[in-house]
Amino acid sequence: MTEEIIIAGFGGQGVLSMGKILAYSGIMQDKEVSWMPSYGPEMRGGTANVTVILSDDRISSPYLKVYDTAIILNQQSMDKFEETVKHGGILIYDPNGISHHPTRKDIKIYQIKGTKLATEMGNKKIFNMVVLGAFLKIKPIVKHENIIKGLKKSLSERYHHLIPLNIEAITMGMNSVTPINNEQYV
Predict the structure, then answer these.
(1) Which of the four pLDDT bands, split at 50, 70 and 90, describes residue 63?
(2) 21, 38, 85, 87: which could join 150 in a potential S-S bond, CB 3.0 to 4.6 Å?
(3) In sequence order, which residues have a C-beta less than 8 Å from that of residue 131 and are 6 or more positions away?
(4) Using an 8 Å Cβ cutoff, are 97 and 106 in contact?
(5) Domain that holds residue 123
(6) CATH number for the domain including 146?
(7) Measured distance CA(169)–CA(7) in Å, rounded
């Protein structure tokens, strides 16, 4: 099993953190892992993306042009990465700020209202964990206990008191993801 993922959005949305937690979780599960961040000089507010590869086999290159899954969190990223999802792949997106929704018919498209749900939960910073939960519902490539280990590894110890809230956000995302076009899937 190899899963090649692009996570893309604005800096400050937790794009790189989400990728890092997935990568650490894969390591805890004895997977081969690649985590390759990319961000502009603006950081917060600028565009950011991260490529994560989790595999049972050795990873030959962290550089990819097409992905099994794209997790899209803003319009600029949708414009750039929608077409990079492999035929039969998955695109997950938060509709907040998206004016041109994905239109491909050869991939499975899912929507998660991460911004709305995180706000309702009282902490906008857990937005990325809601989205991560949606991904893990669709593709449970790492075990729940390894996600918790990944959270502990990637969060500074002074933030470990927030791990239960992050786990709650992941669960919320798992329970709230909506398929958009699966009845049309070719």
Answers:
(1) confident
(2) 21
(3) 18, 71, 73, 92, 94, 112, 114, 173
(4) no
(5) 2-184
(6) 3.40.920.10
(7) 18
List, for residues 26-61, the tens digit of each pLDDT value.
Answer: 999 999 999 999 876 655 566 799 999 999 999 988
Task: Report the pLDDT value the prediction gives residue 174, as an integer from 0 to 100.
Answer: 97
Helix axis angle, 127-138 to 15-28, nearest 10°: 50
Q: Per the structure, how many domains does the chain have? A: 1
Q: Cα separation of 168 and 174, whole Å?
A: 10
Q: Sign of the C-alpha dihedral, residues 104, 109, 113, 118?
A: negative
Tell how far CA 16 is from the center of its chain: 9
Q: Over the stretch 123-144, which tens digit does the pLDDT of each residue have?
A: 988 999 999 999 999 999 999 9
Q: What does the block give as tokens for 11?
A: 């800096």
pTM: 0.92
Q: Give the position of tokens 């690649």.
A: 34
Residue type at 62 in one-letter notation: P
Residues 6+ apart with CB under 8 A from 29: 142, 143, 146
**Is residue 51 a contact partner of residue 20, using CB atoms and an 8 Å limit?**
no
* 17 contacts 131 by C-beta, under 8 angstroms: no
